[in-house]
From TrEMBL:
PROSITE patterns hit by this protein: ACT (PS51671), HOMOSER_DHGENASE (PS01042)
Keyword Cell division found: no
Protein name per Swiss-Prot or TrEMBL: Homoserine dehydrogenase
Annotated catalytic residues: 205
Any one GO BP annotation for this protein: methionine biosynthetic process
Record-linked PANTHER family: HOMOSERINE DEHYDROGENASE
Keywords: Amino-acid biosynthesis, Methionine biosynthesis, NADP, Oxidoreductase, Threonine biosynthesis
Sites where the protein binds L-homoserine: 190
Keyword Oxidoreductase recorded: yes
């Protein structure tokens, strides 16, 4: 233990900020031992008090930028969220020579390239373990534990709200809207759930993981996102009948033609570990050329799980500061000059198997005409479920699994099928991933 404490400033006393404060105080002795230095919360920047987090005699400033300017603060912990004030705060902290720890995935995903460059310019570092998958140490795994591997692909359940909704739909046969309302009541989903259910939150996290895995600059604008609002209880039931489960996945793959960056509902074989991650839990599966598949599972959100990751970054920095040398590992695992400007594959060229559901006339020749259209586009049917019509109905649901096909070919085939008089409405489509590492 050094005689001189490492002084940090925490900005934000919301869910994660208060959780971080409590963990640092409750586990102070163990944290100090691991950091080889005492960690002193020198200043808290918060525009209002949190009655669930009494600060005792810790100094508080209502001006969060005072933390970035305070000469005694060595590490600024940004936990206010958003990408406007938070960005200005981090920029000021870096310009004042302070290291930064953040849990802000949107900030890193959208502005990380320029913030990392600014940190390098001022000789400081940004740590962001808590920005992806809460308490799961996936950033350290990719940047350090798997450093000897060429990462082939990764796939993750990286939004707990979406996973909770799909788990409830499967377990209890409920529809999306009903479960979303419950998720909001439980605090799993925001009043405006768009970021969660439309895949934006997962896209923020995926681009960070992909940049670490493949050594490429952050490219948030290139991530394809598709939400789960159109997944029906029937889709969940048919997927089970075919031996699959539906999960909202973030997928990143590196191929000869470029990198795939996509977030969408996905059928996964029910025997896969990832298919059995339920509720609000997160999990990330990474395939490395040397180690093979590795799975990282745990709490992806919440006050103390996320605080666990924040404190881990603080401990790393405190250990290095106490030793007099901060390890300036590049933020994305590669020196900026060595980052590869890899092209992102357009979705039309992405190849996967497909699950399809449509309503068709129950009469001879209809199925034959549909399969002929698929055949003309190089798509074959691997499995088929045809249900009997309900009493008084003349249309039946057709459920198909296809072989691997490029999205462009599938788009053309489905457009032709939807134009048939014998098919009503839109054809539901969900991609399929085997995830067999």
């Amino acid at each position: 233990m050094t005689s001189q404490a490492v002084k940090i400033g925490i900005c934000g006393l919301g869910t994660v900020g208060s959780g971080t404060f409590k963990v640092l105080r409750r586990n102070a002795e163990a944290i100090s031992a691991r950091a080889q230095a005492d960690i002193d919360i020198a200043l808290v920047g918060a525009r209002r008090d949190n009655p669930d987090c009494p600060l005792g005699d810790t100094p508080v400033s209502r001006d969060i930028f005072a933390v970035a300017r305070d000469p005694q603060v060595q590490v600024l912990v940004e936990l206010i969220g958003g990408t406007t004030v938070a960005k200005e705060l981090v920029e000021e902290a870096l310009a004042n020579g302070k290291h930064v720890v953040t849990a802000n995935k949107a900030l890193i995903a959208e502005f990380g390239n320029e913030l990392f460059a600014l940190a390098e310019q001022h000789g400081v570092v940004i740590r962001y373990e808590a920005a992806v998958a809460g308490g799961i140490p996936i950033i350290k795994a990719l940047r350090e534990g798997l450093a000897g591997n060429r990462v082939e692909w990764l796939a993750g359940i990286i939004n707990g709200t979406g996973n909770f909704i799909l788990s409830e739909m499967r377990d209890k046969g409920r529809d999306f809207a009903e479960v979303l309302t419950e998720a909001q009541a439980l605090g799993y989903a925001e009043a405006d759930p768009t970021f969660d259910v439309e895949g934006i939150d997962a896209a923020h996290k995926l681009v960070i993981l992909a940049s670490l895995a493949f050594g490429m600059p952050l490219q948030f604008s290139s991530v394809y996102t598709e939400g789960i609002a159109r997944v029906t209880p029937d889709d969940v039931e048919y997927a089970e009948e075919l031996g699959y489960r539906i999960k909202h996945l973030g997928v990143a793959k590196q191929g000869d033609e470029g990198v795939e960056l996509r977030v969408h509902p996905t059928l996964i074989p029910e025997a896969r570990l990832l298919a059995n991650v339920n509720g609000v839990k997160n999990a990330v599966l990474v395939e490395g050329d040397a180690v093979g598949p590795t799975l990282y599972y745990g709490a992806g959100a919440g006050a103390e799980p996320t605080a666990s990751a924040v404190v881990a970054d603080i401990v790393d920095l405190a250990r290095e500061l106490s030793a007099g040398q901060v390890c300036r590992v590049p933020a994305l695992g590669f020196a900026t000059a060595r980052l590869k400007d890899l092209p992102v594959l357009p979705m039309e060229a992405v190849v996967t198997p497909w699950y399809l559901r449509m309503e068709a006339e129950d009469k001879p020749g209809v199925l034959s005409s549909i399969t002929s259209i698929f055949s003309e586009h190089g798509i074959s049917i691997e499995a088929l479920i045809q249900k009997a019509p309900a009493a008084g109905e003349t249309r039946v649901p057709l459920i198909m699994l296809t072989n691997a096909a490029a999205q462009g070919n599938m788009d053309e085939a489905v457009a032709t099928i939807e134009a048939l008089d014998s098919v009503s409405g839109e054809v539901a489509r969900i991609r399929v991933e085997d995830l067999d590492g």
